[in-house]
Design brief:
alpha+beta; single chain; 342 residues; globular
Amino acid sequence: MKLSNKDILAQRFFNQGLQVPFPNSENLLSNALGIQAQYLNHGLFNIFIRTTHTRNSSVNQDIENLILAWGQRQTYHFYDVKTWQDMSLFLKSESIWTEKYFAEQGLSLTKESQRLKKYLQEPISRQKLKAFYGKEWNVLFYGNALMTYNSRLGRLYQKWQPKDRLIFWEEPSSKVIEHVDEQLFKNYFRFYGPATLADAAHFFGVTQGKLPKDSLSNLSNLDYEGKIYYFNQWQVDATIPEVLVLGKFDPLLVSYSYKDLLIPKECQPSVWQKAGQIAAIIVIRGVYYGNWNFTSQGKLIHFRVVTIKQLSQRHQTKIRNIFKKYAKWMDKTAGNIIFEVQ
């Protein structure tokens, strides 16, 4: 049988919970190795579409045990605690921009980290911490510099609150965890596979030389258009969902170096936009159809979908239902849901 991009995409959709959802958000995040949260509400959306929900499910209950921290590629993620700790250990030797930035400002990362630790003897809100620093905040926390640095060392994280974030400081365990890199590597291909070594290096934000390639012997692989794709298990029941609604910075958009499998080259500028923005998108039977976004107004969330060709009424109804369920999960109500053709 000759493989197509749809065969690989079907496996990815299945492995990522888009065909059979994960039982809860903590289980999802331990498998996904975190979900990017550059835009918190879109990060929550990408968790929502991959997990099961009861009629009375709500965001506050479902993400109670999740944290927010800076991880691979120095980006902001929802994590379960163990995955964040493992990721911090794996990335510990990787240098990040904060070191150069603090040196250029004539500031000491060690000194300022110890000062931050004193402020965080008890968890406090981001707004309260900002008040402690006053005018210094804009320099020390430019691009979240001081938080990113300490989060990457496994000692600072946040928790989501509807109107703020709660910041925690916990010293990491001194216990040495053996083969953590191999476990993370295996998890990547189980959730994101089929994927290439270049994809894995992109996901972790390291060079391919830092990957534990000895672990590849435990994986299956296939050759597609001159690239070797690794995966844990071929799912014979995997199919292409009729409708996929993916939020900004969705795992399907940020976790791979090679983008052409899902988004054709001519459409990529509409998805991977200027200033590092990655759009929320509509996918119909594995084909990119357009973008969407939302705005919150009190207890209402308004949605706008802009597609490159007309959506059928059937597909519009499916998308509306997803938006309405997400709004309810967020303890809000879906307001206007507008469909436009570009």
